[in-house]
Specification:
The chain is an alpha+beta fold and 411 residues long. Helices cover 39% and strands 17% of the residues. The protein folds into two domains: 43 residues; 347 residues, Beta-lactamase (3-Layer(aba) Sandwich), CATH 3.40.710. Strand 12 and strand 13 form a beta hairpin. Helix 5 runs parallel beside helix 10.
Length: 411
C-alpha cells in the first residue's frame, strides 16, 4: 500500500507540473510569434513608420545614407581640381601611447574611413580604408548642420532671408498658432543652439524620443512643426537640439521657394567647383524633406573643398561664394557650451586654438580648419575611435607639421 500511495502522490504532483510546463511553452511560443510578427511588420514598414526604422535600423551608422531615400546635389560642369603637394609621412602621439606613432597606424586602429590633409591649398596626406575611396560619398551626420548654416548665410546675402534677428515665426507662422512664445525665438537663437526648445536624448534603439523622431522621422516637417516645444526663454542657455536644424531647414525651403538640395547645388556646390555629385538624404519618398540635422553626403575631397572655402573666408578661385562677414561670425564663439569648446553658427570653435574651428558629426566626422596653419583636415569614420578631445589633439599635431614641396593637380 505504501508503494501505491507513493506512486499516486508522485503522479498527482506531476499533473500540475506538466500543465505549468505546457502553459509556459505556449506563452514562450506566443511571445516568439508576436516578436517575429512585430519584426516582420517593422521590416516591411521602414518607408512609412518611424518606430519601424528604429526597431530595424537601430543605432545610426554610416550605412544609413543607403537606407534613406535621397535627393541629388549636382556638381557643375566646371570642376575645380585640388592641387597635390609633396606627400607627407606623419607621426602623432595619442593618449594611449606616449611616443609618436605613424598616423597611418592610428587611422587603421580607429575605424577611420577617410583622412585628408590639405596644406597651402594642396593635398599632402590622403588615406582611405575599408570600402571608402576618392569617389565614395560618405555621410556627414551633424557636419550637415554646418552646410545648412552656410546656406542660411548665402540666403541672407541674397535677401531671401532678412537677417538673423527674424523670429522663426516669420517663416513658419503656424508655430505661433500653437504657442505664441515661438515668436520670441530668432534664427540666431536656432543657429547658436540657444532656442530654449525642449530636447531629451533618449538614444537608440528606443523607438521613441526626440533622437528617434528627429533622425528616423518619416515626415520631418511634421516633426518640426508638432514636436518642437518651448521649455525655457531663448538666448539664455545652450542646449544641443536637432529641432533647431529642422526648423531652419523649413524656413530656408519656404524663403527660397525651392528644395534645400536644389539650393545647395546652385548656390554652394556648383560655385565651389565640387568634383562629384553630393546628395541630401530625405525623410521619406512621400515627404521628401531633407534631413537637415544629419543627412548631407559627399566625398572626402569635396568636404575638404568646403573647409578650404571657409579657410579662404568664403572665396573660391577669386569668386565670392559666402560673405566674409558670415564666415567670421559663423566660426567664432557665439556662446559657451557644456563642453570645453565654444559654439558659433552650427560650427564649433577649438577651445585651445580659438582661431580654429570645425564641423563635427556623430561617429567622428570632421572638417577641421586651421587658418593660422593654412591647413584643413578631414576625418570620416565608421566609429569614433578616439574621443573628441583626442581627435582635436591629433588635428593640432597634424597642423604643426611643415608640409612643403612641389604640387600638381588632382581631381
Amino acid at each position: 500500500m505504501d508503494r501505491l500511495d507513493s506512486e499516486h502522490r508522485w503522479r498527482s504532483q506531476q499533473g500540475p507540473r506538466r500543465r505549468w510546463a505546457r502553459r509556459l511553452g505556449v506563452a514562450i511560443g506566443g511571445l516568439l510569434v508576436l516578436t517575429t510578427g512585430v519584426y516582420l511588420w517593422a521590416t516591411l514598414s521602414t518607408d512609412s513608420s518611424t518606430i519601424a526604422r528604429a526597431l530595424v535600423w537601430r543605432e545610426a551608422d554610416v550605412g544609413d545614407q543607403d537606407r534613406f531615400p535621397s535627393r541629388p546635389v549636382p556638381a557643375g560642369s566646371r570642376r575645380s581640381p585640388l592641387a597635390t603637394g609633396a606627400r607627407a609621412e606623419l607621426d602623432v602621439a595619442t593618449a594611449e601611447r606616449d611616443r609618436p606613432m605613424p598616423l597611418d597606424d592610428v587611422l587603421a586602429e580607429t575605424d577611420t574611413r577617410a583622412f585628408l590633409v590639405i596644406h597651402d591649398d594642396a593635398i599632402v596626406f590622403e588615406r582611405y580604408f575599408d570600402d571608402s575611396g576618392v569617389d565614395k560619398r560618405e555621410t556627414s551626420f551633424s557636419v550637415g548642420k554646418s552646410v545648412l548654416s552656410t546656406l542660411i548665410g548665402i540666403a541672407i546675402t541674397e535677401g531671401e532671408i532678412s537677417n538673423l534677428g527674424d523670429p522663426i515665426t516669420e517663416y513658419v507662422p503656424e508655430l505661433a498658432d500653437r504657442d505664441e512664445r515661438f515668436s520670441a525665438v530668432t534664427l540666431r537663437d536656432l543657429l547658436t543652439m540657444r532656442s530654449g526648445l525642449r530636447y531629451e536624448e533618449s538614444g537608440f534603439p528606443f523607438p521613441w524620443g526626440d533622437d528617434t523622431d528627429t533622425y528616423y522621422g518619416v515626415d520631418l516637417r511634421a516633426v518640426a512643426l508638432d514636436g518642437s516645444e518651448i521649455e525655457s526663454p531663448p538666448s539664455v542657455t545652450w542646449h544641443y537640439n536637432n529641432y533647431n536644424a529642422l526648423l531652419l531647414g523649413l524656413a530656408l525651403e519656404r524663403a527660397t521657394g525651392m528644395s534645400v538640395s536644389r539650393y545647395t547645388s546652385s548656390r554652394l556646390w556648383q560655385p565651389l567647383g565640387a568634383a562629384a555629385e553630393a546628395s541630401w538624404s530625405v525623410d521619406s519618398d512621400d515627404s521628401g524633406f531633407e534631413k537637415m540635422e544629419s543627412g548631407f553626403n559627399a566625398t572626402a575631397r569635396d568636404y575638404a573643398r568646403l573647409g578650404l572655402l571657409f579657410l579662404h573666408r568664403g572665396r573660391w578661385n577669386g569668386r565670392r561664394v559666402v560673405p566674409t562677414t558670415w564666415v567670421r561670425a559663423a566660426t567664432r564663439a557665439q556662446t559657451e557650451t557644456t563642453y570645453d569648446n565654444q559654439y558659433g553658427f552650427f560650427w564649433w570653435v577649438d577651445g585651445e586654438r580659438p582661431r580654429r574651428f570645425y564641423a563635427l558629426g556623430n561617429l567622428g566626422q570632421y572638417i577641421y580648419v586651421a587658418p593660422d596653419a593654412d591647413t584643413v583636415v578631414v576625418r570620416l569614420g565608421s566609429e569614433w575611435g578616439l574621443t573628441n578631445p583626442e581627435w582635436l589633439e591629433v588635428f593640432r599635431q597634424v597642423a604643426r607639421f611643415d608640409h612643403s614641396g612641389s604640387s600638381h593637380e588632382a581631381g
